[in-house]
Known about the structure:
The structure holds 2 protein chains of 2 kinds.
Chain A (H helix, E strand, L loop, with lengths): L2 H11 L5 H13 L1 H24 L1 H23 L21 H4 L1 H26 L6 H6 L2 H8 L17 E7 L3 E10 L2 E12 L5 E2 L3
Antiparallel strand pairs in A: 1-4, 2-3
Helix pairs in contact in A: 1-3, 4-6
Chain B lengths: L1 H17 L2 H4 L6 H11 L2 E11 L25 E11 L6 E4 L5 E10 L3 E9 L7 E9 L3 E9 L2 E11 L1
Antiparallel strand pairs in B: 1-2, 1-8, 3-4, 4-5, 5-6, 7-8
Amino acid sequence: MSAPMDDRLMLLYDDELGADEAALLEQRLADDPDSAAVLRGLEQVGSLLREAAEDQGAAADDIVIGVLACIDAEESAEATGSLETPDDSGSRGESNVTPLPRRWRHAVPAFAGVLALAAAAVLVFQSGVLSHHPAGPDRASTQAMQPQQAAKRESPALPVAQPAVADSPPPVAIETVDFGSHDGAIFMVSAGQDSTPVVWLTDEPADQGGRTKPL
Amino acid sequence: MRRSFVALVAALALSVAALPASAQGKGKAPPAKAHKHAARSAKYAAEVMVLHATNSKKGIDKRIGDMPELKKPPFSSYDSYQLLTRARLPLDKGQAKTIKLPNGRVLRTKLLDILPKDYLRISASINQPKGKTFLPLLEVKAKVGQAFIVAGQSYKGGILVLVIRVVNR
């Protein structure tokens, strides 16, 4: 299917084609199952998006509608030369509220609207992300968790981990060993409370010598 | 004009005097500091005990002292430990010290670094005259008073056990 056909299908879906052109295109779709499938896909995606918006964005819509209603009310009040609210009607002369300067009257609701839209976008984004991962956070966020947080999540019954205390270095440690051409091993032997590192070498030559880095 | 010049010279002199000694010396260590470093490295030594482990039913030589390691595997597979040699090798930075082992090989120790909190980094190697190096390199970071063991060389029906402990001189 060509790109112009895609564009025309989009226009048809959006009801932006003229009546004649829409009728011609619909006739053509009867003989073009691929394009008909694309149109059906657009309709399905559109309906899904609308359902999601209805579920998740109702609160945001209410806020936006409310803000727009306030703006409309204010504009109409300005047009009639009065600015009254249900609270101050009839008691304007006694009110201690100082009206905002005229230049701020448009800015405040506009700013509130922007804030409301941003909050709604955050809500929709968060709910969308979590709905894709009902079992928990994604892998990247799990990896980014602090060890204490991860432990707490996996075993909630455990007490909260105390702040990590830097381990003191062992009193003695083998840092490097080159066994040369002999067999060898490094291990620790208990010596009371501490352990003593042992480098064990045999006289038999090894298949291949090796240099061992710190334990 | 003249007073300004005098003031400028005085300020320069004061700022040079205020510079730290290390900055004035351009990286040269003061003699006192070098002497202190040498004195520090001369404080330490490697105490080497050469033990002969056998199954001759003689028990553990009392001169060895308390070494619970000898009663734990794999050392417990030998019932007798005899002290053959005890030596103190001074640990001076950059200067290797040697001791000849009963099997003819030579143990060589060297101080590599003096670390904070009484830790030292030392190296040890075991060479055999006219032959290949038995243990080419062993680097250990040890606190003063702590020991490590090099064992396994065959010797007269048993093995040699080298107990190397970093001690204050």
